[in-house]
Amino acid sequence: MVGANFRATRRSVPVNSEVADRAACQYSTGRPLDFNWTSSGKMPCMNRILIIGATGNVGRQVLSQLPATEARVRALVRNSETAGLPPHVDVVRGDLTRTETLDECLEGIDVVFLVWTASATAVAPALERIAKHTRRIVFLSAPLKTAHPFFQQPNPSRALGEQIERLIETSGLQWTFLRPGMFAGNALHWWAPQIRSGDIVRWPYLAASTAPIDPRDIAAVAVRVLCEDGHAGAEYVLTGPQSLSQFEQISTIGGVVGRSLCLEEMSPEDARSELLAIMPAVVVNMLLDAWAAAIGQPAFVTSTVAEITGVPARTFRDWATDHAAEFRA
Q1: Which residue pairs, CB below 8 angstroms and at least 24 apart, start in 21-25?
Q2: Which residues pair with 22 in a beta bridge?
Q3: What single-letter DSSP state applies at residue 56?
Q4: Angle, CA 208 vertex, CA 205 and CA 214 arms, to 5°
Q5: Which residue of 28, 29, 50, 129 has the lowest C-beta tally within 10 Å?
Q6: Is 4-184+212-242+299-315 assigned to CATH 3.30.420.40?
Q7: What is the rounded CA–CA span in Å between residue 200 and residue 203?
Q8: Maximum CA extent, the chain
Q9: How many angstroms separate the CA atoms of 255 and 242, rounded?
Q10: What global pTM score does this model have?
Q11: What are the helix and strand counts (H, E) for the chain?
């Protein structure tokens, strides 16, 4: 289902063996089979792209992958001196909460990649200014419409995402929504400190399953969408290739770093108390509610990464192997 046949569906597609087999054949090349590569080895992309949210996990990955195309890339940052972005990027100062700063950033831009990093009050004026300057927007959202209970817990972040999507849909812009699920990188914040300090990992809802996705795979889809036509109106739910319980994820990390970890189930009450030291209360409550709702069923898994890029999504073990040093003392 790569190419035109897939895009006609415009929706996430559950994993199936046909797609997996075809993607496996393409994996050895490192490139999707339907790329029209230039003699320089780059994917032809004449779009002028503005990245908003360029210093975040996904934004940085998008910037790191865009040099493999012929796109001209600009990044909006609040502080260019501390952004630490690569030299191929045209770094410009701007602030979503000060719309007058956006005009120069948006000048000559064909498509915007948006990771929202400001308050809800800034959404409407910022999107209005963006719509005056460009024709397309790719918004990094979440699986807000996926029926799996893990994604259906009410919270302020969800409400903000829904507000942004409604405004984008009525802005006159051509839009594409990327909807990644749980990020694999959360393991670094949640479990790495415990693993570095000993063999005991205490965590709530160890039986709750998710399908962690590598930010590099989110970025690979974003690059395709930013550089190609044919994605207008698409909503791509992006997950890793496997449903894994939190117990299995932590055990995978232990295997990768060569450690026998002892996992202890925490009560939600104890977890809330301890997690408030490293996360805002709204995030803690959202996660605990989502994990509780996920107990007893596998995670929602799609093959969208493989279908858009032609390369299978990285497994959680792949991600853990690449980050093994960060789990070692």
Answers
A1: 23/303, 23/306, 23/307, 23/310, 23/311, 23/312, 24/312
A2: none
A3: S
A4: 115
A5: 28
A6: no
A7: 10
A8: 59
A9: 17
A10: 0.87
A11: 14, 11
Residue 181 CA to residue 300 CA, distance in Å, equals 9
Task: Quote the CA–CA distance of 123 and 162 in Å, as a whole number.
Answer: 11
The strand pair at 200-204 and 111-114 is best described as: unpaired
Which tokens go with 33? 């089979």
